[in-house]
Design a protein that fits this description.
Number of domains: 1
Order of helices and strands: EEHEHEEHEEHEEE
Organism: Arthrobacter glacialis
Protein name: 2'-5' RNA ligase
GO molecular function: ligase activity
Pfam family, one: 2_5_RNA_ligase2
CATH architecture: Alpha-Beta Complex
Largest sheet: 6 strands, mixed
Keywords: Ligase
Number of strands: 10
Shape: globular
Distance between the termini: 5 Å
C-alpha cells in the first residue's frame, strides 16, 4: 500500500534518527474522498499531508536500523483489524484541530502505539495519544465550523493490513517500508 502524495523509498538518502513516523494509510478511494473534503476546508495546503492515522510521530532513541527492526517486529506480531471512522471531534480550545473519530479500531491503534513505544522509539507530540484522522487544522473559525458540520455524519470502514514506516527527508516525509500486519505481504 502506498501513501499518495508522500515519496517512497528508492535511491534516497540514508535515514536518520531525528525523525521517524509510523502511520496507518487509507485505501486509495477513501483517501481521495477525504482529501477532496479537506481541500474544501484547507485549500491547496491540504494535499501536503495525505489523510492518515498517526501511530508514532517522533524519533528513534537508538539507531535507525534498531528502530526499524522494532517496528517490523511489532507489525509481524499484530493482527489485521478494521477501523470505523464515525463523525467529528475536536481538540479545541487546546489545539485547533477537527478530526474524524476512530469509533472502532481505536484499541488496536493504541495497542500498536504502546508496543511501538516499548522499543527504541519516542513519540514527540505534546498531547496524549488519541487515534484520529485530522480533517482540518489551524484554520480560521468559519473553515473549522464547516469541517465540523459537514463531516459530522461521515462514516467509513476499512481494513488495516499494514503500517508505514516513514522518515522526514528533504523537507517531506518519505515512506521507507510498508509493513504487513501478521507478517504477510504488504497490500
Amino acid at each position: 500500500m502506498s501513501v499518495p502524495g508522500i515519496g517512497q523509498s528508492g535511491a534516497s538518502p540514508v535515514p536518520h534518527a531525528d525523525s521517524l513516523g509510523v502511520i496507518i494509510s487509507l485505501p486509495a478511494a477513501l483517501a481521495a474522498e477525504i482529501s477532496a473534503r479537506r481541500a474544501v476546508y484547507q485549500g491547496p495546503d491540504a494535499a501536503v499531508v495525505p489523510p492518515h492515522i498517526t501511530l508514532v510521530s517522533g524519533r528513534t532513541t537508538d539507531t535507525w536500523e534498531k528502530a526499524a527492526e522494532h517496528v517490523r517486529s511489532v507489525a509481524a506480531t499484530a493482527a489485521p483489524f478494521v477501523i470505523s471512522l464515525r463523525g467529528t471531534g475536536t481538540f479545541e480550545p487546546v489545539s485547533p484541530v477537527v478530526y474524524l473519530n476512530v469509533a472502532r479500531g481505536g484499541a488496536e491503534c493504541t495497542e500498536l502505539h504502546e508496543q511501538l513505544l516499548a522499543g527504541p522509539l519516542e513519540h514527540l507530540l505534546e498531547f496524549d495519544f488519541l487515534p484520529h484522522l485530522t480533517v482540518a487544522h489551524d484554520l480560521d473559525e468559519p473553515a473549522m465550523t464547516l469541517a465540523k458540520s459537514e463531516m459530522a455524519t461521515f462514516n467509513a470502514d476499512f481494513e488495516v493490513g499494514s503500517i508505514g514506516l516513514f522518515d522526514h527527508l528533504g523537507g517531506g516525509w518519505e515512506l521507507r517500508e510498508e509493513l504487513s500486519l501478521g507478517g504477510g505481504k504488504p497490500a
